[in-house]
Amino acid sequence: MNKENNSRRDFLLTGLLAAGAGLGAVAGCHSKKDPFEAAADGTVKPSGKKVKLLSVDGEVIEVDEAFLKPVPHLPAITNSEARIGIPGKKFVMVIDLSRCKNLKKCQAACNHAHDLNPGENWIKVNPMQAAEHTAPYWEPTTCMHCDEPPCVKVCPVDATFKREDGIVLIDSDRCIGCRFCMAACPYSTRVFNWGAPEISEELASQPYSCETSIPQKKGTVGKCDFCADMTRMGMLPHCVSACPNGVFFYGDLNEDSVTNGAETFRFSDLMRDKGGYRLMEDLGTKPSVYYLPAVSRNFPFESGIENDKKQNK
Amino acid sequence: MKNSKSIASDEQIIQDLLPRKFKTSGRIWVSLLIAICLVGIYAYYRQLRYGLAVTNMRDYVSWGIYISNFVFFVAISLVGSLITAVFRLAGVKWGAPLTRIAEMIAVAAIIFASIIIIVDMGSPERFYNLFIYGRIQSPIIWDVIVITTYFFISILLLYYPLLPDIKILLRFKEKSGPGLHKFYSFLGSFWTGSHKQYLLSKKAIYALCVAIIPVAFTIHTVTSWLFATTYRPGWDSTNFGAYFIAGAFLVGAGSVVVAMYIFRTWYHLEKYITPDHFDKMGRVLVLLCLLYLYFNVNEFLTPFFKMKESEAGYLNDMFSGSFAPVFWFAIFTGILLPIIILLFKQGRKPLPMFIVGIMVVVGAWFKRYLIVTPTLLHPFMPMHDVPEMYHHYFPSWEEWAITSGSLAGAMLIITLLCRIFPIVPIQETINEHHETAK
């Protein structure tokens, strides 16, 4: 009887401790080094420092810090939830080419936020020139999050998918690495992890989240995810907030509103007044990324050349 | 008198066509193939360990010689259906001694097509996802389905016609040794050769011959759709299915000619694989060359005429740019020169045919390389903000080793099959002999 009580208490406490570590409760998680068993056989000594925790019954209890069991960081939502998306939303991005001077701050922020390998970029800023006598301009490209995504069409295992809110994501736990999506994408937006990503052991051992696209895994495809995790928290994607020139706007088509953090516009007004368009409309991919043409520019094209040479020799 | 002669020659035919143990040259050949395979396996071990980073494929050229090689193998495997099924259904009698060679090549090629596609995967340990999460909308799933189907039909088309021969092989226990004898009886001891069994087998072979033709067309058409279902210049073509099939029959027939010559010389089968066979295969080959040439003209001339902006870079690169040497080599060696040589009667003699066969096969391999790589190096968007090496592609030693290993592996399977089974169907040859004697 007594013993049974004890084991029940242990079980509860294990759950609590996991919660105490601030990282979600993992009840009944049996690892080889259960802190209480370890304490019982004396391998772990109490540190004397107590931590206050709230039990499931609403009781405040104190536990020695040495008995806390670290559990891996769990994503806020499961990958099957991440497949559905945020109901009632239709996310769009607007990129104003007249404001871009190829600072590549968007790229740096994106690379940092997603822990990308050196040299690997989900955002590329291309020097574009339509014809010999037309003017060159800088064109940042992300994943277009197409409404008719060719990549999703060809994926044999449903590893890349289109959500209700318009975002196209990748489940790296499912991707088999056939790279058909890369061949299918006309915007060359997809990036492959040819070798093991150079990330910390701690990060690499985290469970993969479709919304953060972290951690990237060897032999799978990665790409811009519209920062679906930030979006869920009601925050802007990293590229949008990192750009000092306000090139990127992000928002919800259903609300007809996009913002770059400093300015907010009606999406339809921007399209009407500035002549918005999408890339390669003739292919019928129906991108969610809209461009505003490079007219009345804030910076000359040449101002971005120097910065470009760092990556493109 | 005639009858006794034919009985005597029955034994002679059997003695001539029984599979033989490897001599020194055979042993050297097999060890060489095994050595190449082992190097390939080591390279694959490195690839599993360090990822596809050991290859020189990168984000733009995301498919390289593995995929070219895959297309090549699928193409060659089509010959099984051509020689066995199309010839049989069309009542082409002279093709009979070549059916087994063709079917062995088909089986070996389709096995390595499946292997090489797994080698190309970034996460092969998740192969089972294709069965758990498979989406029927994806052309890759179509490929998995039809290749599996084709594999089984090819195996059966190799197996059923073997049964009468296995009955003969079982008579020579001391020659084949106890191990092989056991294997033969496992495969075919139930075959008595009764009239009922004979009819059943004939029906089954006929049904398989009918079934394999649409399946063969499907495997290579679907393989072409892995490219043609994308938007990319050079792949976005309605011509692709037919273009691939024509090329496949050509390379398959070429490989049969090469095999015919080698087996004929090696096993002294001059009586069974005659200059007449070479002459007729030469006519088939020249027809296939002309057909493939026609599809090539279609594939390249119309876009060349228009020179659309998106296609211009890729076309210029092929015709006069960095891929021009390979392109013109493949066109001349794989198509044009064979046509010229084969139009002459002298060109259809065994030795020139052997050389033409090699030209066709080598040309075809490089043609597959050109189908995959140049297109990928000419994407719609500029190649920018990527490391320098992403702008080019030349396979790494691991890629060459794995590719050579797969080619050696396919040849090893063919070699072992012809060690175990008669290359020229014995019973069919005897039957034919009796018919002509009458």
Topology, please?
The complex is a heterodimer of chains A (313) and B (438).
Chain A: H1 2-20, H2 35-40, E1 50-54, E2 60-64, H3 79-82, E3 91-96, H4 105-113, E4 124-128, E5 137-141, H5 150-154, E6 160-162, E7 168-170, H6 180-184, E8 191-192, H7 201-204, E9 221-222, H8 228-232, H9 238-242, E10 248-252, E11 257-259, E12 264-266, H10 267-274, E13 289-292, H11 305-308
Parallel strand pairs in A: 3-13
Antiparallel strand pairs in A: 1-2, 3-10, 4-5, 6-7, 8-9, 10-11, 11-12
Chain B: H1 2-17, H2 24-50, H3 65-77, H4 79-89, H5 99-119, H6 129-132, H7 139-159, H8 163-170, H9 173-188, H10 195-228, H11 240-266, H12 275-306, H13 309-319, H14 324-342, H15 350-376, H16 397-420, H17 426-437
Helix pairs in contact in B: 1-17, 2-16, 3-5, 3-11, 3-15, 4-5, 4-10, 4-11, 5-7, 5-11, 5-16, 7-10, 8-9, 10-11, 11-12, 11-15, 12-14, 13-14, 14-15
Describe this structure in words.
Chain A has helices at residues 2-20, 35-40, 79-82, 105-113, 150-154, 180-184, 201-204, 228-232, 238-242, 267-274, 305-308, and strands spanning 50-54, 60-64, 91-96, 124-128, 137-141, 160-162, 168-170, 191-192, 221-222, 248-252, 257-259, 264-266, 289-292. Chain A has 11 helices and 13 strands. A 5-stranded mixed beta sheet of chain A has the order 12-11-10-3-13. Chain A has a two-stranded antiparallel sheet with strand order 1-2. A two-stranded antiparallel sheet of chain A has the order 4-5. Chain A has 313 residues and is of the alpha+beta class. Chain A starts with a helix and ends in a 5-residue tail after the last helix. Chain A has 2 domains: 2-67, no CATH class; 79-308, Alpha-Beta Plaits. With 438 residues, chain B is mainly alpha-helical. Chain B has one domain (22-126, 142-379, 396-424): Formate dehydrogenase/DMSO reductase domain (Formate dehydrogenase/DMSO reductase fold, Up-down Bundle), CATH 1.20.1630.10. In chain B, 74% of the residues lie in helices and 0% in strands. Chain B is built from 17 helices and no strands. Chain B is globular and about 70 Å long. The model of chain B is unreliable at 1-6 (pLDDT under 50).
